[in-house]
Specification:
Blueprint lengths: L4 E4 L5 E4 L7 E3 L5 E3 L3 H5 L17 H29 L10 H10 L2 H14 L8 H35 L16
Antiparallel strand pairs: 1-2, 3-4
Helix pairs in contact: 2-5
The structure holds zinc ion (ZN).
Zinc ion binds next to loops.
């Protein structure tokens, strides 16, 4: 069984030839006379599908690139989305119940020296500046994460659309180039 190769004609059709036809002139369906090149050049031509029928439609490099880019964008976006989501559910935004009376009672039960030491040690841990309570800081973090998640979801949709678009690109049979055009 000899391998068939595809010899392109000017009309765009591809004629199945095998190496034994090297040097011959064959007639295309369009009527054009096509010279079969040398054996060596025939072997370098695109191979015909082994089923003997038409070649299976193959993806063009552009289609492959668009598909790969789309999948990559979608996968990365979804991964980021999951990471952001996990981080978000770990944040507590609840406002804690603070019993001020307990604090007040404690302060009144201490002597001045103890209160002064307590005050100074607090300053050492936390510089004296306006600090937002943790739940407010957390709420801002959640709002920021929501914004990033929205962007990630948007790019995930974009990646999916790009992936789908790869299937819609018509196979560029006209532009599919041979590695070495046969010498005439
Ligand atoms: Zn032709």
């Amino acid at each position: 069984m000899s391998t068939k190769h595809l010899l392109p004609c000017r009309c765009g059709k591809k004629i199945e030839v095998d190496v034994r036809q090297a040097g011959q002139t064959i007639t295309c369906q369009c009527g054009a006379m096509v010279d079969v090149p040398t054996m060596r050049q025939v072997r370098q031509l695109e191979r015909a599908a082994t089923t003997g029928g038409k070649t299976a439609p193959r993806w063009s490099p552009l289609q492959g690139a668009v598909f790969a880019a789309g999948v990559l964008i979608a996968v990365i976006s979804l991964s980021v989305l999951v990471v952001l989501f996990v981080r978000r559910i770990g944040i507590d935004t609840g406002k804690p119940e603070v019993d001020l009376k307990v604090h007040a009672d404690w302060i009144h039960s201490q002597d001045v020296d103890t209160l002064w030491e307590e005050w100074m040690s607090d300053l050492a841990v936390q510089p004296l500046r306006r600090m937002d309570p943790e739940y407010l800081v957390n709420r801002r973090r959640v709002a920021r994460l929501d914004f990033y998640m929205l962007i990630a979801a948007g790019t995930a949709v974009f990646g999916t659309v790009v992936t789908a678009a790869a299937f819609l690109i018509a196979p560029g049979h006209k532009r599919r180039s041979m590695k070495k055009p046969p010498a005439t």
